[in-house]
Amino acid sequence: MIEALLNTTEVLPKGWRLVQLGDVLSDIIGGGTPSREVERYWNGDIPWITVKDMRTRRPEAIQEHITEAGVNECATNIIPADTVITATRVGLGKVVRVPYPAAINQDLKALIVGPDLDKDYLEWWIISQANHIESIGSGTTVKGIRLNQLKELQIPLAPAPPAASYRGSDRAAAGPAGCGGGAAAGGQGPVETVQAGGVEGGGGGEVDGGVEG
């Protein structure tokens, strides 16, 4: 079982480590639903993503749109383009990224990666963990996970690649004149991206019914 594998360091590749998801995210952004009774909140230019739009990981069209008033006066937020968005209610384990800013409803969370986490890897990891995420969900009519459960999920991270060894003049090490400074020796590099087959697990399907975290 993938849960058993990820709860022991004995099966991780050398140098990898398990960390809590919340420790490698810079932010988790929630959303909300503007009142349906206020017409000026709806049929605007801002895509408003719900679980209904998560049939594919790259939806070309969003079913509903809201206005700036719907964002500014209600409990929702504009999520930056290409952010990893996952369901914490109803469709546990589903994930999307859209190439434009969008708002989300209360069943979704936008995961803003920190410097040690690659968003492609995060997306594939959530897909691999869909069955586990569904299994920890609770609720009678709607099944979901709480915010603290999301933050406490254990994600394996690859070691940072070794710093490049520079030879020659200080000018060569620093880069061409007029350019911004490069990574200092010993600095952290980007985390390796693990492809879809790199982490074992099940795919995410929509489940019936969660509790809002």
Radius of gyration, rounded?
Answer: 20 Å
Report low-confidence residues grouped into runs of 5 or more.
1-9, 165-213
Largest sheet: 4 strands, antiparallel
- Mean of the pLDDT scores? 77
Tally of alpha and pi helices: 6
Strand content: 15-25%
The SS-based structural class is: alpha+beta
Shape: globular
- The H/E string reads HEEEEHEEEEEHHHEH
Describe the structure.
The structure is a single chain. The chain is an alpha+beta fold and about 210 residues long. The protein is built from 6 helices and 10 strands; from the N terminus they run H-E-E-E-E-H-E-E-E-E-E-H-H-H-E-H. The protein has helices at about 1-5, 70, 120-130, 130-135, 145-150, 170-175, and strands spanning about 15-20, 25-30, 40-50, 65, 80, 85, 95, 100-105, 110-115, 155. Strands 2-9-6-7 form a 4-stranded antiparallel β-sheet, covered by helices on one side. Strands 4-3-8-5 form a 4-stranded mixed β-sheet. A hairpin with a 7-residue loop joins strand 6 (about 85) and strand 7.
